[in-house]
């Protein structure tokens, strides 16, 4: 008689079956989250509806910064190639949003044509009007870097008098739209111009809730001395701390991202290490793209749920006949109290609520009588999606990642230091002597031999206990010394001969000089007499 109840309940408990993460995200959004968004006018308040291209597009990197901080030069440095429409100069040169993307032939696609292309993830940008679209282009070119990622170049953020001149469109809102859809946001600062203008401050605040995507680059750092660089770095961290409201410090990369000689080469090693860290971060984007899209969908679903509670609460408080205008003003003014009540009744974290001031401004233009009351079924569907379907997609994400472990950005500047003598750390630390015909440890072996023969060797070998007495003088932790012992004891007999002891001391020196130890002993560090053992 009531068999339909069991069927509905069973449907809710059994999660959807998906073939790929991308297909799963599309289906979940269209069938479970989009109905809730449309019912409560989510798109008028927060973000336009997502399209298939938003789930299918390559990872995107958004570059943001004040004018002349090196944003366009940074892209040129990554691609090792000029792109159509590129202009570089000390004055504000980039006055458009430029999407640099892969294409078979070089060319520029204007904004109005771009927002009608269903294969590009930009269709919803038409809401910002012609003033924006006239300053939005897509530069297409064949480039190996762009096969894995796309890069968004933005106009230089204005400072001083220039910021009073209106752009004709809501610059912060456009950046917020991009921030929701990109995989990485890179804020560029010039080591000579650390002032954060009003517009830049407004932009960084608009990027709130996307701190996990943000990275900071302190560019042109080769133009100042080491002591000044320390002060500049401290001042930048202090300035960011006042604007970015997170307890964690945003990762800051220091360097000079262009292909010119370093003006002051004192910090060359630091710049190389920082560049490699940043490159690794960018190279990991394709591998983590599915997880990022899943994470963004969860964030969107949580916001949509809270939005539904807010709109339905306002609808519930409105009178059916008289005094609607006065009641609307009262509700908008008391929106903070409504937030607190929803937070208590539905156990929602305060961080999930939209910005109070912005929400109040948006509500002023709305007709509250057209709001919808609470519809439990829509909310239950989204809850079911978060509780069951997302968990299944997480498993699928891991499966896809394991099947494509080597998926990373290649070409351009990413290839320059990958192999050969100009790779980061080549010929340093444990890599010292890699190209030498002579065993590198032999240079200091006479000094190590003197110590070896004071440790009472028996049959040309010293025991672990005797070796420990000497090795602990380095003051390195036992965990590190234990690793050095495993690397040096090549024949695994629990004792060290003179060559193995010299190797152990060489590795101690490598560690004391600040380098990392290898997980396996490189072939060039094998003592000549032991090379046949390992073969």
From TrEMBL:
Domain of life where this protein originates: Eukaryota
UniProt keywords, alphabetically: ATP-binding, Calcium, Cell membrane, Endosome, Membrane, Metal-binding, Nucleotide-binding, Phosphoprotein
Gene: Ehd3
One annotated Gene Ontology cellular component of this protein: plasma membrane
Biological source species: Onychorhynchus coronatus (Royal flycatcher)
Pfam families referenced in this protein's UniProt entry, alphabetically: DUF5600, Dynamin_N, EH, EHD_N
Record's bilayer topology term: Peripheral membrane protein
Name of protein: EHD3 protein
Organism classification: Eukaryota, Metazoa, Chordata, Craniata, Vertebrata
Segments traversing the membrane: none
Location of the protein in the cell: Cell membrane; Endosome membrane
Domain called EF-hand: residue spans: 476-511
Entry-linked SMART domains: EH (SM00027)
Biological processes, Gene Ontology terms: endocytosis; endosomal transport
Domain EH: 444-532
Signal peptide limits: none
Domain Dynamin-type G: 55-286
Main location, first listed in the record: membrane
């Amino acid at each position: 008689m009531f068999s339909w109840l069991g069927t509905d309940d069973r449907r809710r408990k059994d999660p959807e079956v998906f073939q790929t993460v991308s297909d799963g995200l599309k289906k979940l959004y269209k069938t479970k989250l989009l109905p809730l968004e449309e019912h409560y006018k989510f798109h008028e308040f927060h973000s336009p509806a997502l399209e298939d291209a938003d789930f299918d597009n390559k990872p995107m990197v958004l570059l943001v910064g004040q004018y002349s901080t090196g944003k366009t030069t940074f892209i040129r440095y990554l691609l090792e190639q000029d792109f159509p429409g590129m202009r570089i100069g000390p004055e504000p040169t980039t006055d458009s949003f430029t999407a640099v993307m892969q294409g078979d032939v070089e060319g520029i696609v204007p904004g109005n044509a771009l927002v009608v292309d269903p294969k590009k993830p930009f269709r919803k940008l038409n809401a910002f009007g012609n003033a924006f679209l006239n300053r939005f282009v897509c530069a297409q070119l064949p480039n190996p870097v762009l096969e894995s990622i796309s890069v968004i170049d933005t106009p230089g953020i204005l400072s001083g008098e220039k910021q009073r001149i209106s752009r004709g469109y809501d610059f912060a809102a456009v950046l917020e739209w991009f921030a929701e859809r990109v995989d990485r946001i890179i804020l560029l600062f010039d080591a000579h111009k650390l002032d954060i203008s009003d517009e830049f401050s407004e932009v960084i605040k608009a990027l709130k809730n996307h701190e996990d995507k943000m990275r900071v680059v302190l560019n042109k750092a080769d133009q100042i001395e080491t002591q000044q660089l320390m002060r500049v770095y401290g001042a930048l961290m202090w300035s960011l701390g006042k604007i970015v409201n997170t307890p964690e410090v945003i990762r800051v990369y220091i360097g000079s991202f262009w292909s010119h000689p370093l003006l002051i080469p004192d910090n060359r090693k630091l710049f190389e290490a920082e560049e490699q860290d940043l490159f690794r971060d960018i190279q990991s984007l394709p591998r983590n793209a599915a997880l990022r899209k899943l994470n963004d969908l969860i964030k969107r679903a949580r916001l949509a749920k809270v939005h539904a509670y807010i709109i339905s609460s306002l609808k519930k408080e409105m009178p059916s006949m008289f005094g609607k205008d006065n009641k609307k003003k009262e509700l908008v003014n008391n929106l903070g109290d409504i937030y607190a009540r929803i937070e208590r009744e539905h156990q929602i974290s305060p961080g999930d609520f939209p910005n109070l001031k912005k929400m109040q401004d948006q509500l002023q233009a709305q007709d509250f009588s057209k709001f919808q009351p609470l519809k439990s079924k829509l909310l239950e569907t989204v809850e079911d999606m978060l509780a069951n379907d997302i968990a299944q997609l997480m498993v699928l994400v891991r499966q896809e990642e394991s099947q494509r472990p080597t998926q990373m950005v290649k070409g351009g500047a990413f290839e320059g230091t990958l192999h050969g003598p100009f790779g980061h750390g080549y010929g340093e630390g444990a890599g010292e002597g890699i190209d030498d015909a002579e065993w590198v440890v032999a240079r200091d072996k006479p000094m190590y031999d003197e110590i070896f023969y004071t440790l009472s060797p028996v049959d040309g070998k010293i025991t672990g206990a005797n070796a420990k007495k000497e090795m602990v003088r380095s003051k390195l932790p036992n965990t590190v010394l234990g690793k050095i012992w495993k690397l040096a004891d090549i024949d695994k007999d629990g004792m060290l001969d003179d060559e193995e002891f010299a190797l152990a001391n060489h590795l101690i020196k490598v560690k004391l000089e600040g380098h990392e130890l290898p997980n396996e002993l490189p072939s060039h560090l094998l003592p000549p007499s032991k090379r046949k053992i390992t073969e």
